[in-house]
């Protein structure tokens, strides 16, 4: 850090190491740190984590509660997408079977298990 501080040219625009060193350096001016945080998403994430750690216990609980709620929401959306994709495969399989395609061809088209296709055909 000492060697870096002595450098006259600090290229934060093009050098991610210089941005990180600026963020880590306690002697960096606050405005420069804010600029670096705005330039680099990973440094922004680290800065947010650092701010979180400095909060009080109640603020941490609120933070984690919100994070869990967001995670649950995303998981729910992803689960609904998977369920919708599975239902679409089943609809395609039903239509293909109605057209007289063999079970093995329907399996190849949809990726469904052969047992599921046999149940749909039955």
Overview of the molecule:
The chain is mainly alpha-helical and 122 residues long. The chain has a domain of 54 residues. The chain contains seven helices and no strands. Helix 2 packs across helix 3, helix 3 packs across helix 4 and helix 6 crosses helix 7. The protein starts with a helix and ends with a helix. 7% of the residues are buried.
The arrangement of helices and strands along the chain is: HHHHHHH
Estimated helix fraction: over 70%
Multimerization state: single chain
- Number of helical runs? 7
Overall pLDDT, averaged? 88
Summarize the main sheet.
none
**Share in β-strands:** under 5%
| Total number of strands | 0
Describe the protein's topology:
Blueprint: H1 2-6, H2 16-24, H3 30-39, H4 41-53, H5 57-98, H6 103-110, H7 114-121
Helix pairs in contact: 2-3, 3-4, 5-6, 6-7
Provide a brief overview of the structure.
With 122 residues, this protein is mostly helical.
Features:
122 residues; mainly alpha; 78% helix; elongated
């Amino acid at each position: 850090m000492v060697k870096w501080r002595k450098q006259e040219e600090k290229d934060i625009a093009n050098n991610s190491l210089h941005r990180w060193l600026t963020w880590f350096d306690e002697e960096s001016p606050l405005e420069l740190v804010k600029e670096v945080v705005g330039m680099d998403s990973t440094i922004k994430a680290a800065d947010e984590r650092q701010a979180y750690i400095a909060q009080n216990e109640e603020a941490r609980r609120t933070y984690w509660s919100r994070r869990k709620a967001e995670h649950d929401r995303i998981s729910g959306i992803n689960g609904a997408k998977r369920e919708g994709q599975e239902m679409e495969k089943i609809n395609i399989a039903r239509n293909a079977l109605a057209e007289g395609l063999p079970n093995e061809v329907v399996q190849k088209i949809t990726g469904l298990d052969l047992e599921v296709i046999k149940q749909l055909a039955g």
